Amino acid sequence: EDQVTQSPEALRLQEGESSSLNCSYTVSGLRGLFWYRQDPGKGPEFLFTLYSAGEEKEKERLKATLTKKESFLHITAPKPEDSATYLCAVWGGATNKLIFGTGTLLAVQP
Amino acid sequence: DAGVIQSPRHEVTEMGQEVTLRCKPISGHDYLFWYRQTMMRGLELLIYFNNNVPIDDSGMPEDRFSAKMPNASFSTLKIQPSEPRDSAVYFCASSFGGGKNEQYFGPGTRLTVT
């Protein structure tokens, strides 16, 4: 069964303190891995898609990387506005479904 | 574009009542997804449509749940009868081209069943 596990469940950082969020997955034939950001009371907002091991993508202070078993979301010098829940999702097999992890709640304190 | 539109934003109802959630996807998108989000189980896919046709409803919890997409610009998720364990945030999302492309989520409907 396809599965996505995110860690840690929650992370508290000081402004400027860089860190990484982890997304490990088991899926039959990974076709894509997605990162989303979700603010309280809102729907998830798309950040990145990674399609193959070794691929990296960057957006402002965020960089996503992918290996054959996991993905990392690196946050460099975070600011309070980066506080949100970060969700990872995998697309695999013959369907068009995404399987989501339960997310990492990030709090960045000034 | 206004993005994915959902209504109502909040719904409070009593156990046993019928609940209908509504969604307008982004114009031009050919896939529509219904999700449910709870603290315990996270974001779960309930059902998705391609070109208004239901493709996979394996995530629908039970027969009390039903979804329709009568045209490319409108979909409904109905719960009849509702139960307290249905309390959750329900999201609608749309995309163009299926799994390989990002999904755009609506703001969600927070459902409380008392």
> What is the ordering of alpha helices and beta strands of chain B?
EEEEEEEEEEE
| Poorly predicted runs of chain B | none
Strand content of chain B: over 45%
Calculate the terminal CA-CA distance of chain B, rounded to whole Å: 36 Å
Dominant shape of chain B: globular
Q: Catalogue the unreliable spans of chain A.
A: none
SSE order of chain A, one letter for each helix or strand: EEEEEEEEEEE
Largest interface: A-B, 22 and 25 residues
Helix share bin of chain B: under 10%
Category by helix and strand content of chain B:
mainly beta
Described by strand count, sense and barrel closure, the largest sheet of chain A is: 6 strands, mixed
Task: Give structural notes.
- The complex is a heterodimer of chains A (110) and B (114).
- Chain A is mainly beta.
- Chain A is built from no helices and eleven strands.
- In chain A, the strands form two sheets. In chain A, strands 2, 4, 5, 9, 10 and 11 form a six-stranded mixed beta sheet that branches.
- In chain A, strand 9 (84-92) and strand 10 (99-100) form a beta hairpin.
- Chain A is globular and about 45 Å long.
- The mean pLDDT of chain A is 95.
- With 114 residues, chain B is an all-beta fold.
- In chain B, the strands form two sheets. In chain B, strands 2, 4, 5, 6, 9, 10 and 11 form a seven-stranded mixed beta sheet that branches. A four-stranded antiparallel beta sheet of chain B has the order 1-3-8-7, with no helix packed on it.
- In chain B, strand 7 and strand 8 form a beta hairpin.
- The radius of gyration of chain B is 13 Å and the shape is globular.
- The A-B interface holds A 31-32, 34, 41-46, 49, 87, 89, 91, 95-103 and B 4, 31, 33, 41-45, 48, 50, 55-56, 91, 93, 98-108.
